[in-house]
């Protein structure tokens, strides 16, 4: 969920935005051994102050208990050095450069995946256009839908095959009972 100032949901941010939904789906594909979190871009993240806070629960465990350099790796493998401030629970110095270099705008959603100590892979899902991640998410959905359709077709084929086998079986029963009846009648 994108949270606005003072911990309240910001009404100007659509928490069911396309980018948010796609990011949530994408996040489920990440390996569980690498901690990760979503961050919806607000104006303070991409203009003016250029501060980016991390979820407090995330700062408690995998990040250092002191100010440190944190490397952000984008989808092309380019690295950006930033300053993690323990007192702010987030990034300050260097974040502005990353944000500008990637043309981040309000409502873009970033998935931060900790790949090494103080090193994050950053996946960007844009609100207003599709990225490579979006293509992967769409393909995953198509595969799942196709798999479900195939299963339904198989079930329908099984049902159809069952019906086909039932009819001759029923006809045989009827034929046998007719033959028995004829024998009894002496035909």
Automatic annotation (TrEMBL):
Keyword Transcription: yes
Location of the protein in the cell: Nucleus
Chief place where the protein resides: nucleus
Statement: the UniProt record of this protein carries the keyword Transferase: no
Keywords: DNA-binding, Nucleus, Transcription, Transcription regulation
Organism: Solanum tuberosum (Potato)
One Pfam family matching this protein: B3
Domain TF-B3: 37-128
Family annotation (InterPro entries): B3_DNA-bd (IPR003340), DNA-bd_pseudobarrel_sf (IPR015300), REM16-like (IPR044837)
SMART domains found in the cross-reference section: B3 (SM01019)
Gene Ontology annotations for the cellular component aspect, listed alphabetically: nucleus
GO MF entry, a single one: DNA binding
Protein name: DNA binding protein
């Amino acid at each position: 969920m994108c949270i606005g100032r003072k911990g309240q949901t910001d009404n100007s941010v659509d928490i069911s935005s396309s980018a948010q939904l796609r990011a949530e789906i994408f996040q489920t594909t990440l390996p569980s051994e690498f901690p990760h979190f979503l961050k919806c871009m607000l104006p303070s993240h991409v203009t003016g102050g250029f501060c980016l806070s991390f979820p407090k629960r995330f700062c408690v465990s995998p990040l250092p208990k002191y100010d440190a350099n944190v490397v952000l790796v984008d989808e092309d493998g380019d690295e950006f050095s930033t300053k993690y401030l323990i007192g702010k629970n987030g990034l300050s110095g260097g974040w502005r450069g990353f944000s500008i270099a990637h043309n981040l705008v309000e409502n873009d959603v970033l998935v931060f995946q900790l790949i090494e100590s103080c090193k994050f892979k950053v996946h960007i899902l844009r609100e207003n256009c599709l990225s490579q991640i979006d293509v992967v998410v769409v393909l995953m959905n198509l595969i799942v839908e196709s798999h479900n359709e195939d299963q339904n077709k198989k079930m329908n084929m099984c049902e159809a095959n069952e019906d086909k086998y039932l009819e001759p079986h029923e006809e045989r029963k009827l034929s046998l009972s007719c033959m028995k009846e004829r024998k009894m009648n002496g035909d």
